[in-house]
Structures are given as structure tokens and as C-alpha cells.
Write the C-alpha cells for this entry.
Amino acid sequence: MSARVLAATDPAAIREAAAVLRRGGLVAFPTETVYGLGADAFNPIAVARVFEVKARPSFDPLIVHLADASGLHRVSRSDDPRVGSLAARFWPGPLTLVLPRRPEVPDLVTSGLETVAVRIPAHPAARALIAAAGTPVAAPSANPFGYVSPTTAAHVAELLGASVDLVLDGGPCAVGVESTILSLADDPPVILRPGGVPREALEEALGVSLDVAGPAERPVAPGQLQKHYATRTPLLVLPGKAGPSPRGRVGLLAWSGESPDGYAAVEVLSPDGAKETAAARLFAALRRLDAAGLDRILAEPCDEAGLGHAIMDRLRRAAARG
Ligand code: TXA
Ligand code: MG
């Protein structure tokens, strides 16, 4: 069965989606980063369905999404002054903060951790939905565990089908890579996952330099799982610009410009050279290459300044096998 998809710009669709959440259903919704698979964060049965639909291990906790900062006290007892200044600068937007949690947040949401991950998405449909539902919304990316995250409603419908009650279509995601996860529960604070807010911007806001947590097998912060965002087709990140195609049906994820000869399929990530463009196109391009019946995919690298950090993180993890 196919998923029910409604336009996110329709106020009636938002009302209906909010009602689905309130009665314990699952709604896939657009955010500026990727599409999320949402459930009422205070309804453990609804949250359990999220894990089931995604085939996600229960040790991987979910991000709780709020409509605005006034909802923060419902999930966290933090009185950390850094939250206010980071919120003022980066919320709504692609930043997730890991904070001490309130005991009322179900263990399934936090995987039993003493912390909760929180963010306020910038997409107007996401905020309208959360506000109308009147409850914080726990939402992972709306993809089967380990696979490339969805950046359009069609991706969600294709991947999860009728196992979600409703899909809100808000168009392609503008940022295209997930939120940056910053743990303020660690001292000093640490970046658990590079994402839409560059490390440099956080360092400037906090006035400190930030460490980035390394990959781990069974992490405290499971977004660090080494093999993630994986294509089904083997993928290799090249050390530099691609040469002519090796033998076989090889696909190329090119950074920009003229691509060399002989590839069975080529996706150009950034025709204008901007990393923002590349991030926004990354997951859709990976999906198209993955669907092209290739023997393997070669990916050109970019430098790791700004959004390049998140892009290279996703490519390296897509390349990790086993
Ligand atoms: O951009 C995003 O963050 C998207 C959209 C939908 O908001 N969501 C997203 O969720 O990427 P997900 O579930 O695919 O990744 C969330 C990551 C998990 O890998 C988990 O490890 C980490 O957030 N996380 C959640 N709660 C945590 C906590 N209390 N401590 C450390 N890490 C946590
Ligand atoms: Mg995910």
C-alpha cells in the first residue's frame, strides 16, 4: 500500500497531521535538514512504533523537536546559560543540543540516557505541526535504519510506504544534511555529529574550540555509528578529482565542473561550487546513483571547512562496509 501524502502548505493537512500525532500515530514531515518520522514524544507506544518502522536499534535515542524555545522546560531541566545564547543564534535551525533530561521523557526516547537531544526545526510546516499537536515530537530521519536520509516526500513514501499514517509534503529540504549535534552535557562541550551548522559557527558563538567525537561501534551517542547513510552499491571516496572511469558500470559523484569520460552515470553535486548546494543535493544524488544498477560509485571529496565537514562525514560513512 502506498502512503497518504498531503501538501504541507494546506492548514487542513497540518490540523489532520496534528490529530494523527495526538492519537499516537506517525507522521512524516519536512524539516530544513531531512524529512523526519514523528511521534508524540510523551507517548511511549507511538515512539515504539517509530523504532519498529525504521528497524532501528533501541539503543539509538531520538531527537525531540519543539515548535519554539518555550517548550524546552517540558523535556529538559537545564539552566545552562549557553542554551539561551545558542538558541538565540541558531534556533530555529539545524542545531540539536544534548541536555540533561527531565524524568518525564520516556526512556525509549532517550535510550535510558540521562540526557535528551532537542532541536527547533526551521521549516514552517514542522513548527506548525508541532505547535498544533501541542506536544514535543520525537523524530528520527524518515528512512530505514542505516540507509540514506530522505530529502523529499517521494523518498519517504518510497521507503516507508503505508507504515506511516501520513506524509506531509513540504518540497525538497533546503539544507539537505542532518542537524549538527552538540552535547552540552559533556564538559567541555563536544560535537557528536557534524551537520547543518558548521563547527566554526558554534566555536565562534561559544568562544571555545570544539572537539568532534570519533566513530564508535556502540556509541553513547549512536549517531556516530560508523556504517550509516550507506548506499546498497559499494561506494569509495576518492583522494582527489576523478580521472577517467575504471572498467565496469561505475558511477561518479562529482563535485563540480566538467566530469571525465566513461562513467555509466554522473551526478554533479555543486554546479555553482557552493557547499550549501552540494549538501542540499547530496542524499538525492546518492539515491539516484544507487538506483542506477552500478557496480560501484566513486565520490570526489571536498575540503572540510564549513559544511564540508558534514558532507565528508556522510560520504565516509556511506563508504564504510560491514
Ligand atoms: O536533522 C536532524 O537532526 C533530523 C531531522 C528529522 O530533525 N533528525 C535526525 O534524527 O537526524 P536521527 O534519529 O536520524 O539522528 C539523531 C541522532 C541519533 O543518531 C542519536 O545518536 C543522536 O541523535 N541522539 C539522540 N539523543 C541523544 C542523546 N541523548 N545523546 C546523544 N546523542 C543523541
Ligand atoms: Mg538518521
Observations:
- DSSP finds nine helices and 15 strands in the chain.
